[in-house]
Amino acid sequence: MTAPEHERPVPAFEAVGLARSYRLEGVSVDALRGVDLRIDHGEFVAIIGPSGSGKSTLMHLLGCLDRPTSGILRVNGVDVATLDDTGLAELRNQAIGFVFQSFHLLGRTSALDNVALPLVYRGVGRSERRERARRALEAVGLAHRLDHRPSQMSGGEQQRVAIARALVGDPKVVLADEPTGNLDSRNGQEVMDILTELNAARGVAVVLVTHEREVADLARRRIHVRDGQVELDERDGVGGSPQGVSAQGDPAAGRREGP
């Protein structure tokens, strides 16, 4: 039985009628069209869909890297519309860790200092941030690479540095945009093993965008996006469910989970 709305934990993300449009050469293009979605803390979710479906736009909105054109988006219960750019940046830094397909590491900087960088923006002292960065790198199996620059590491190692950077601030959520896209199958599997363990051991919500079905199948929930809308929301053990139907099979509860 689903708990009353006021008793349910605050979700990691909650979207109501979420829309994003862009002006391209004077023409309005709808990238997202009225998405209703709820992602709770501790979930492992894959967002999948064809190129141009809107999945990356959705990821950027969830990560507070962009603002919706209309609709409501709450991150950890905070309505992003109430935040100015500084507040949005603080929310990103405090609550969300990012892993990108292209790693986005500083090329002339050691792994240790790359990982410590988010803590600089929090005002954490040098010795503490370096110690926390060292522990984060140890957690992804790179204790022997602390002083190496990205050019001295393989693609898989660089992605693990990026994951350590995402973890160093103890985020509630990790957003991963095509985290295996630039990796071979072995390194891709290692990265997914780390994300799976992170979710299982620490309870951190993991939300990843991927076009690879075998990667998506490692998640316990898969949100299919097409033409800017959620086409299907399926969970392990439940089977494919239209948007708005919960894992418990309670349509009313599902409407709350997908407001």
UniProtKB/TrEMBL annotation:
Gene3D superfamilies: P-loop containing nucleotide triphosphate hydrolases (3.40.50.300). Residues 13-252 form the ABC transporter domain. Pfam families: ABC_tran. GO terms for cellular component: membrane protein complex; plasma membrane. InterPro entries: AAA+_ATPase (IPR003593), ABC_transporter-like_ATP-bd (IPR003439), ABC_transporter-like_CS (IPR017871), ABC_transpr_LolD-like (IPR015854), MacB-like_ATP-bd (IPR017911), P-loop_NTPase (IPR027417). Keywords: ATP-binding, Nucleotide-binding, Transport. The keyword ATP-binding applies. Residues 231-259 are annotated as: Disordered. One of its GO terms (molecular function) is transmembrane transporter activity. It comes from the Bacteria. CDD domains: ABC_MJ0796_LolCDE_FtsE. The keyword ATP-binding applies. This is Macrolide ABC transporter ATP-binding protein. It comes from Sphaerisporangium melleum.
